[in-house]
């Protein structure tokens, strides 16, 4: 059995990291057109760096929750019986990894990585970044967060398509289904006859495309679902 899990901001909400589109979400407090596009970075790199520095600090100060831990347990449990999990996240935090997940595909990038616009190198990055900070590989002061901004192509779409093509079950957890191409994965899975499940606090924009749904806080719904999948196996 191959399980494809897509996660969104809702899986990290109970770790204290704001979602984007909930009432007091990030995009209610910050303007994405001024902070999360390549044009915004070209126009005001200082403001964009400050925004992602804040998000990086918040992510590093946060702790994984029971939903992250359950997905790490699912990865181990499936592997132990010869099955597999493909964990694809839209989140740029590293809470899945800190909960013990070994394989995490960050389709929208990672806040704890820097990319150099001069040499293309990508390096782990835990400190604040800025326009005067030099690339550890080539020395140029042209670093940007290794993030997918609006208008840019998500990372590893070929891998995602391949994993989806071989999935026996598709589950979306804590995502509003507002942003494509991630929001389109359920329709792709459906068109292949793959069973689909939504786990969310409230029905997502594309809730009607899912065969099944579990509604409730991720820290409750995800461990219960993982118990079910693993049949009570530890
Ligand atoms: N448990 C489960 N789900 C939750 C919880 C919770 N505790 N809290 C919120 N949610 C759900 C909300 O109901 C909503 O459906 O999580 C979803 C969060 O939706 P968004 O804020 O739109 O986040 P996401 O879907 O991850 O956004 C997708 O948009 O802004 C871009 O690149 C950014 O990756 C992001 C993408």
Tell me what you see in this structure.
The chain has 234 residues and is of the alpha/beta class. It is built from nine helices and nine strands. It folds into two domains: 1-17 and 65-108 and 154-234, 3-Layer(aba) Sandwich (Rossmann fold); 25-61 and 114-147, SIR2/SIRT2 'Small Domain' (2-Layer Sandwich), CATH 3.30.1600. It has helices at residues 26-29, 32-35, 38-43, 45-61, 66-80, 95-98, 157-165, 185-191, 218-230, and strands at residues 2-7, 84-89, 104-106, 109-116, 122-124, 143-147, 169-173, 196-200, 212-215. Adenosine-5-diphosphoribose (APR) binds at residues 8-10, 13-14, 19-22, 25, 90, 108, 174-176, 178-179, 200-202, 204, 217-218. Its cofactor is Zn(2+). NAD-dependent lysine deacetylase and desuccinylase that specifically removes acetyl and succinyl groups on target proteins. Modulates the activities of several proteins which are inactive in their acylated form. One of its GO terms (molecular function) is protein-succinyllysine desuccinylase activity.
Keywords:
234 residues, alpha/beta, Rossmann fold, SIR2/SIRT2 'Small Domain', 2 domains, six-stranded parallel β-sheet, three-stranded antiparallel β-sheet, 9 helices, 34% helix, 19% strand, globular, binds adenosine-5-diphosphoribose, cytoplasm
Helices, strands, pairings?
Layout lengths: L1 E6 L18 H4 L2 H4 L2 H6 L1 H17 L4 H15 L3 E6 L5 H4 L5 E3 L2 E8 L5 E3 L18 E5 L9 H9 L3 E5 L11 H7 L4 E5 L11 E4 L2 H13 L4
Parallel strand pairs: 1-2, 1-7, 2-3, 7-8, 8-9
Antiparallel strand pairs: 4-5, 4-6
Helix pairs in contact: 5-9
The structure holds adenosine-5-diphosphoribose.
Adenosine-5-diphosphoribose (APR) binds next to loops.
